Amino acid sequence: MIIKLRDYQKEAVNGLHERMERLLKLPNDKVLVFQAPTGSGKTVMASALLKELISNRNDKLSFSFIWVSVRMLHEQSKEKLESYYEDDRKFKCSYFEDLEDRMIGENEILFINWHSINKKGINLIVRENEQDNNLSSVVRNTKEDGRKIILIIDESHHTAGSEKSKELVEIISPKVTLEISATPKLKDVLDDIQRVDLAEVKEEEMIKSEISINPEFLGLKIASKDADELVIEQALKKREELAKLYKKEGSKVNPLVLVQLPDKKGGLIDKKEDVIKILEKNGISEKNHKLAVWLSEDKTENLKDIEKNDNDVEVLIFKQAPALGWDCPRASILVIFREYKSFEFTIQTIGRIMRMPELEYYSNGELNKGYVFTNLGSIELAEDYVRDYVTEYEAKRDNKLYKNISLSSVYLKRQRERTRLSGEFVKIFSKITEVKKLKKDVDLKPSKIVNPIMSDGKITDIDKSGEIESKGKIEIKLSEKELQDRFDRFIVQNCMPYAPADSSGILKTALYQFFNQELGFEKYDSEVQQIILGKENVQLFTDIVNLAKEKFKKDVVQKLSKKRERVEVPKWEVPLITSYNSRYEPINYPLSVTKPFYTANQSEPERAFVELLNASGKVKWWYKNGESEVKYFAIERADNQAFYPDFIIQFKDGRIGIFETKSGFTAGEDAKERAESLQKYIKANKKKNLIGGIAIYKNGTWRYNDNDKYEYDPDDLSNWKVLNL
Question: What's the rounded Cα separation, in Å, for the pair 278 and 229?
Fold first, then answer.
């Protein structure tokens, strides 16, 4: 396929090429960020860049490429690039199992699924195995064969900030990393950036001019319809309107409605059957082939070719499947329902209706818009970042100092029974309602509950975060089903932090029992829901539930057995990369194996111990250990708790030191369990040549205790050894 680039795409590719060539000439590994709006053709431009990179070179550089994508997007990226390069035999597109001679060939692109790598423990692509067939060895073989590696991270805002992702980049150590995203998290580590402006993409008529939300809802005649029925019917009406307009334009495009079902959480009503009934009532069904379903548990046969502009399917029901990386330009309308939690538009979800089906604007402006129909009262357009991006700094392990130490470590998980409400909660709730005299405060005739729905909202830039403006709201009385649904959402939200799926029934029982025993209602009277959710009462019940949860935590959860699930880490190493938030500050310590060294609220014993280590002529490197995570070193104590020693030290003579710093009363009885567990660990691992113990600074001298039975008397340290560094 010959790639015909638009003007802005040509400029972007030329700019990327110039920046890439400049970075290739510089020492050390570099990062180039490519920021382009959703729907601008980022994959097309990246593929054109690779073609430019290998063509007509005057130097002897040759390249291998690794293309990493989120979820299953790597498969779609591979298919697209194979299509782009089908007339150009210079490129080869491969999965890991396709590689020959355990290396990436010249101009070969290895496609990797990032999510398979970031599962618990990096998978076989990265882990060592008997055949030595892993990414580390493939990268090593490729470089030894004389090629530079270029790493392309697609949708980098999902991936590039996570610690395992950084570890993977560390393993690959590419000459240049190209991060591609509509909303990159820009940090100091980037060396150059190429941007495509949203206005340029609209000017080339690649994406829709704007997104319209619930257009003209303010003047609607609602009658007896509930919110779901209203939203779906208006979406179908808009679809029919657009279909007629396409015909007038002489186009064969059959506009598609995407109906996104909310995730079923904590016993909430599954909307699927209700939505199908409403659609059937409006002449859309699987029988007449106008309806398709794309759910993990249910996929209809007519999904094939649904992306084609003239396909017969008019409505597609889905949850998450098409939300990322699914390309269907004829999709013009998105229907979204209220979630059990507050809903945020993500760029990728709404991006499914942003593309122009024939890559040009039509004479009728209605066809140049995307449409969202929803029962939401307000909408936030969110930046779609992963959790790892809350960190701002990172320290890397200094591999010039470091050699693997392979210590056995443990990680103890919390038991699941600590995360759910039990029958004891009902008793606690009942007592608190008595103490707080809830019966007296409840308004039994609250205001009627209505569903406010936004009208005439508009989005012109989907890559920009913030609340979406609208002309106003309409109010619809809740149907019985909607009332039940809203009550279920109230229950789910108020179960938190306890698992809703296991706790919802308990909370409902507590509420219904109060109305039955204290106010004389029938056991499961439906009026109870209306009263609880009324604006005069909802905060009152929320407060009482929170008080009951707090007492439940204190009286029940904290008294549960603290036994935890044990996870063995047979070969622990200092982490390749550790991330820190803004509370931490960097300090330059030459013998710290992580660089730079970051600290926050360092204790006086730790600070003094670090000074001792840095001044020592016997220490090769030292590592300040973290806590509570599997990536940090831990020893199991006799009381089934994990002990995370403060410092791991590599001495120049080959010994490994494990020390916990204490001072004053903290070196007393509180240190006994840690001290004896550490000595037991050292004896069990004699082959590792370990030393260590509790370390204290007393009268100008550092001492440590390595006795099997720990004792501390500040006036008698005769059984403590001098730590001679």
Answer: 6
Rounded CA gap, 623 and 634, in Å?
13
- The β-bridge partners of 452 are 475
Structure tokens at 652: 């120049």
Strand partners, 705: 694
3-state secondary structure of 119: coil
What residues are paired with 580 via a beta bridge? 393
How far, CA to CA in Å, does 87 sit from each of 66, 348, 382? 21, 31, 40
Lowest mean pLDDT among 64-78, 317-331, 505-519: 317-331
Residue given tokens 């210590």 in the structure block = 407
pLDDT digits (tens, 9 = 90+) for 375-387: 876 665 554 322 2
Task: Tell which residue, 244, 492, 481, 266, has the closest CA to residue 375.
Answer: 481
Coil vs helix vs strand at 16: helix
Looking at 479-617, list the stretches that DSSP marks H as alpha helix, in order from N- to C-terminal side.
Answer: 480-495, 500-519, 527-533, 538-555, 604-615
Predicted confidence (pLDDT) per residue in 93-135, tens digit? 998 888 998 899 999 999 988 766 654 444 545 555 555 668 8
Residue 106: how many other CB atoms lie within 10 Å: 16
Please state the rounded mean pLDDT for residues 146-172. 75
Q: Which residues pair with 64 in a beta bridge?
A: 149
How many angstroms separate the CA atoms of 234 and 253, rounded? Answer: 20
Strand partners, 648: 623, 658
Please give the torsion angle defined by the CA atoms of residues 201, 205, 206 and 207, in that order, rounded to the nearest 10 degrees: 80
Cis peptide bond N-terminal to 570, omega within 30 = no
Distance CA 142, CA 65 (A): 10
Amino acid at 200: E
Closest CA to 66 of 122, 12, 113: 113
CB-based contact 291:317 (threshold 8 Å): yes
Other Cβ atoms less than 10 A from the Cβ of 549: the count is 22
Q: Which amino acid is at 84?
A: Y
Cα–Cα distance measured from residue 166 to residue 720, given in angstroms and rounded to the nearest whole number: 42
Which residue from 302, 373, 318, 380 is spatially nearest to 344, judged by alpha carbons?
Answer: 380
Mean pLDDT, the chain, integer: 83
Neighbours of 594 (CB within 10 A): 23
Residue found under tokens 């982490």: 575
In the 8-state DSSP scheme, what is residue 498?
Answer: S
**Hey, what are 164's tokens?**
């395992």
Tokens of 514: 């109060």
Sign of CA dihedral 239, 244, 247, 248: negative
Residues in the chain: 725
- Alpha helices, H only, 417-499: 424-435, 438-441, 480-495
| Tokens linked to 724 | 């001679």
Q: Which residue has the tokens 């030191």?
A: 657
Question: Most distant CA pair in the chain: distance in Å?
Answer: 97
Question: Can you spell out the DSSP letters for 359-371?
Answer: SS--SSGGGGEEE
DSSP β-ladder status, 466-467 and 380-382 = antiparallel
Contact yes or no for 553/547 (Cβ under 8 A): no
Q: What is the DSSP letter of 559?
A: G
- Can you tell me the distance from the alpha carbon of 586 to that of 394, in angstroms, rounded to the nearest whole number? 10
Please, what is the Cα angle at 254 between 253 and 259, to 5 degrees? Answer: 130
CA distance 588 to 595: 8
Sign of the four-CA dihedral 427, 432, 437, 439: negative
